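TEACHING EXERCISE
Course module: macromolecular assemblies
Task: Read the component lines below, then compare them to the predicted structure of the full complex.
Student: A.B.
Group: 4
Components provided:
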Amino acid sequence: MQSWVQRLLTTATTAALLLLAACCAASALDAFHVPSVQAQAHVTKINRFHKQLNGNDKVTLTFNVSANLESLFTWSTKQVFVFLTAEYENSKNSLNQVSLWDHIIPDKDKANLQVEVKSKYPLIDQGSSLRGKKVQLVLHWHVMPKAGVMIRDRMALSEFNLPDSYTS
Amino acid sequence: MDWQGQKLAEMLMQLLLVASAVAAFVVGYAMADFQLMLLVYAGGVVLTALVTVPNWPFFNRHPLKWLDAAEADRHPRPQSLANKVVLAALWCCPPYDKFSAPAG
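Instructor-supplied answer key:
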């Protein structure tokens, strides 16, 4: 004979399966969402550019970032992680990426960023190839959903040239 | 809970859960609120459990009708060889649906 415990377990299992299906559907719908991000970033000042004792080039920068990331948010977005990288090419690597600044946006109301910041993390080259180098600022973002797959994207913003000589 | 009741409980459970999942998804998407979807679905699951888990009286409308012992004595087991074969076959793989009470 079937007991109430059996019926409860069957109900719980089916309920969990359907919840999984609902989460998958929510995540799948996000794939059709096309955001329109508008962003700009410019270096306003190169605070210090020098060679560290271990021979690595180190730059600290000030830059402004204005980014409207509101369109990234959908009904199932938990938060957006956004970070700015400096990307350049040198003789050792065709692509170097150094994270300069990052920020967590917890909800849509706070997704319109207008900030002028000092680089949170210094631009350090593994070597001394930064003098006179053309560096590109790239904005990356990770859209973290409440359930499902994380969506990553990036946008190249602007380029700047580092000075030909160290500042100190 | 009788056989018909079990079938009914299973069907009700699946129907209610699918319906509440679909309703929760539509409501959550329409209101753009993931948490609302979870709350609506949780409500649906609790409702489903309340309807299908306890042994409600409407799951017991088709009780099994067993033969009276006196009735069985009046029809003793047939002893011919052919009947023995049939009985053996019935014993191996009994047609269970024959033993459950007819609907209504």
